[in-house]
Amino acid sequence: MAFKIIASQCTQCGACEFECPSGAIKFKGESYVVEPQKCTECEGAFETQQCASVCPVPKTCIPA
Amino acid sequence: MSAPVISVESLTGRLSDQLLASADSGGCASSSCGSSTRPDDVDPAIWDKIKDHPCFSEEAHHYFARMHVAVAPACNVQCNYCNRKYDCANESRPGVVSEKLTPDQAVRKVIAVANEVPQLSVLGIAGPGDACYDWEKTKATFERVARQIPDVKLCVSTNGLALPDHVDELADMNVDHVTITINMVDPEVGAKIYPWIFHDHRRYVGIQAARILHERQMLGLEMLSARGILTKINSVMIPGVNDQHLIEVNKLVKQRGAFLHNVMPLISDPAHGTHYGLTGQRGPNAMEMKALQDRLEGGAKLMRHCRQCRADAVGLLGEDRGQEFTLDQIPSELTYDASKRETYRELVADERRDHLAARSEAIGMVKIASSGKSLLVAVATKGGGRVNEHFGHAKEFQVYEASPTGINFVGHRKVEQYCLGGWGENATLDGVIAALEGIDFVLCAKIGHCPKDQLADAGIRATDAYGHDYIETAIGAIYAAESGVPALTATA
Question: Which residue of A has its CA nearest to B198?
Fold first, then answer.
């Protein structure tokens, strides 16, 4: 299980990158990308997925 | 870099033209002999901090420029007036930028600007997100810039939510100017402005979100005041949401030691894609703004000269040279050359002394001539505190009020440039006349018969008789003439 970022809606503010407790989010090429093998959906770390909680655009960090 | 390289000689030549319009300037120079340029109502220690900061001193904004570097795009608060999804180079509002920068790119940009814009005195980080939330980038930028150009003042603008976490570091880095945007002191009101915040690893909504934000803002403000860091409070005036409530905000921030309160009009347009833009929430007009600001007089000191600039603005307030300094125009290797800034500072020191003397004299005259009435005067100026812009070239007019209390800056009116390519457009002139609602006089360096007559038909008297005089000297002369008192001859 992992989250993904809808690149076309992303404003590239980068907040998700430094909120991610697993270091799963990186800027690659033109957009931020979630590495599925690193993403834990914040299980055991936080009650809510950090990327989705901080993202300023609705429905942009969503379950893959 | 495609911008022409300017020699210091030509620069001082141009400055002299611009600033020192004549050797025989207004005001009795001897009366200011040996005195500082500090206005009477400002504490000397504070004056020292603000005298070169255009956003903290209305007087300084005629002479000094600021720049913002857009290194902090991440944000922890959603405001209903903000949407960072779009950028347009023709838009001027906070939160809009053309390109985001890494701290290293920002340092290069600051050096490029410092080498070319002699008026530069302040580097601010105002997002486009939140400077305290995107802290690592803000901090890295300040540390690197301070190493290269130690005399640039550092300044941040924040929503306040993450501010308490970084006050100590701000103090350590000698950031002595902070702006907090405070739109409410009542969570009920806040809930209508902020749909959510992200704090302590989770998203909060509604009243709870607004309450946390309010508490953090107050805590941050108190911590800054305790450390002697000057704090400006920005408030967005949202008609029907917080316009009356801002009186309460003003009171509370004053109690907690805020130095300045800057009430700005909501910028709202469906094209911006903001919540307010899409729901039809309107912004206030110029006269509504002024009415509220007048009600706030006597509370925390007001800033009325804010231009609501972009998070990547460069230049004097009211002009934005940001497009001259995009990354593609900045060489990869740059060394800081202090010569232009130093030359400019020397020139300005004399000019300011003279201007201040002329200003005191004009204000004194207005008080004596006082007929009990007040006049609103719109001035076309390029800076330097003089009436030195052609009517047709003005993109904004600075508005002053002459009244029994003296001559006070009360705001500005943005307009479409009337004269483009040598032609004046009638449709544009109608827009200019509409923007000048409530204005009695227009002062400029030059104006043609046609626009002058049309302004007169609208009840606005325009004159270029005071071209290149100090603004206050010109206004004093007009006020005296209106009151039927023989005016001092303007000689500047």
Answer: A54
- Helix, coil or strand: residue B311: coil
Evaluate whether B303 touches B57 at the Cβ level (below 8 Å): no
Kindly state the average pLDDT of the residues A19-45.
95
Q: Which residues of chain B have pLDDT under 70?
A: 1-41, 86-92, 485-492
Q: CB-hemisphere CA count at 13 Å for A43?
A: 7
Q: Which amino acid is at B99?
A: E
**Would the CB atoms of A13 and B129 count as touching at under 8 Å?**
yes
Total number of residues shown for chain A? 64
List CB contacts (< 8 A) between B100 and chain A. Answer: 12
Rounded to a whole number of angstroms, the distance from the CA of B437 to the nearest CA of chain A is 38
Per-residue pLDDT tens for B169-179? 999 999 989 99
What digits encode the pLDDT tens for the residues B110-143?
A: 999 999 999 999 999 998 999 999 999 999 999 9
Pairwise CB contact (< 8 Å): A54 & B136: no
Which pTM does this prediction carry? Answer: 0.88
Instruction: Please write down the long-range contacts of B318-322, taking CB distance under 8 Å and 24 or more positions apart.
Output: B318/B395, B318/B396, B318/B398, B318/B412, B319/B383, B319/B395, B320/B92, B321/B117, B322/B98
